[in-house]
Amino acid sequence: MPEVLLADFQVKRLEVLNEKGEADPELLPELSDAQIWRLYELMLLARIFDERAVALQREGRIGTYPPIRGQEAAQVGSAFALTKQDWLFPSFREMGAHLTLGYPIPQLLQYWGGDERSQKVPVGLNIFPFCVAVGSQIPQAAGAALAARYRRDPVAIVTYFGDGATSKGDFHEAMNLAGVFNLPLVFICQNNQWAISIPLKGQTASASLAQKAVAYGFEGVQVDGNDVFAVYRATGQAVAKARSGAGPTFIECLTYRMADHTTADDAGRYRSGEEVAFWAARDPILRLERFLERRGLWSPQKREEAAAQAAALVDAGVAEMEALPPPAATELFDEILATLTPRQAGQRKVR
Amino acid sequence: MAQLNMVQAINQALAQEMARDDRVLLLGEDVGRDGGVFRVTEGLLERFGRERVLDTPLCESGIMGAAIGMAAYGLRPVPEIQFLGFTYSAFEQLFAHAARLRSRSRGRYSCPMVVRTPYGGGIKAPELHEESTEALFCQVPGLKVVVPSGPYVAKGLLLAALRDPDPVLFLEPTRLYRLLREEVPEEEYLVELGKARVARPGSSVTVVAWGSMLERVLKAAEGYDAEVLDLLTLNPFDSEAIIASVRKTGRLVIVHEAAKTCGLGAEIAATVAEEAILHLRAPILRVTAPDVPVPLAKLIDHYLPGVQQIRTAIDDVLQY
User: Fold this and answer.
1) Contact list, A337 vs chain B (CB under 8 Å)
2) Among B157, B184, B211, residue at a domain's last position
């Protein structure tokens, strides 16, 4: 008997903006100059926030911190396509998405400073707490998507995770649920190519992460993750598809973790300076600047002004975070259960 | 009043709460068309439709994680894990997330869900189908653990669990599913979580048990002036009721079908030692399974505590 071909698939990569700052006019998203400038401001804010957080850790003013340097386009570009009604299930390295959605800067710093109270996400933002257990937020996003559909809410549920998470069972269980139930869910993989010391080729033998979606029966696309327009365009299409009930999408943002895994890591132990330099030259902020300059919207002076504004926001956030009084011992027992057990109530009394 | 077994009582509670509250949804493996492998959810798909009774793919962690997302979104999901032994692959979701979502988000999100799972030994099922590792779950703050011992309390406890604002693990003793029939009122009633029940009053020895062991303890207690406490909720357990009974009887025997070391009996014994040691007239005894994995059917009767072992323990504390 002749063999029958059961499946034949293609995986696409989306690029809009090249290294020189030239955009494909057919693919460039419909954004006003003011919106594009806003994207730039947010990417700068993310960069400056990140630099400050690393410095605060070095000075002992916050605890261990996972830098986002290099991933600003992949985070700002994707979150810029969301509304505050959408739900976000982040991992722990997407502060650029938080900043884009208006998450208070003091509260972001407060979390990395080890203060539980920071995880009370402001009302009006449907963002889940940081998820340090890799990949475990992904099935939770699938559940929220089931609930949103049950409630007929026209929202998208979005979950962020890294390339390492695609090796975990929870990722695959959630991808499978999304396919089987055709959920209004957008998977945004920040493929920064390193999970601590394990490079992408140590996580998967697949030619791309995007193609994993094919096996679960829905669309997967790779985008140039350092191209803010490509990320924005792909995310915009995926959330519109989700809100309209047309099902899930997997977006692989191929980017690069320019810094260490966390402030407790030394990436020099496992990767070359040449590789880091190669990606530093592909900095997502530089690329957007070249685009803006071609449009006559950018100059070194404008950058300085925008950077000074961002630094002022971060400075104010640091001051506010550091002015917070430390939590009282009894706050150990806050919000453990709706009503403390008798034993917990007794333990609280003697704190 | 209808005589129902535990399967019917649980089914009735689920149906009544689903009719009352459209936030209640069931999800799990085979819970829909098949009505669950023990038929506990039989007829609910037909009555409430596919949006409220979801047959999921085979993915315990995915089921548990999805239930957390549903609960945070404002629903009251009831995930069924087919057997307690299959929750092991969902531990991270249950321990790291469901139990601490309220705490992690400082109250912004909560996780009102009831994880139903059959548990316990003595049903001639394959490996990992007869686990009794309830104490593992009791170690996790933020998670309540409830075990009914018969049809009447099963219905009232389940309704109370479904209305609880926090996650509840609801362990259904498989050996009892169809063993006992009791009068179960059609109308709704709640059995309060966190409260033990005096299953049999007495004054010379207190015997604490739960789940399927209660039936054996009641048999063993015949002919003794023993007070039998049915714990019903394992976390938080009703230490007040245990202390009150021990103050009266001066003797305590704890019976569980889980392994001895770090079983819930240890916590109960320690609590009584801390709070009522001077009332004791004999050492506290535990009648438990040995510290070995739950065996298959041929050895299970040598594993589960039997009526005679319980009697021996009662005799020992009475004659001390």
Assistant:
1) 102, 142, 165-166
2) B184
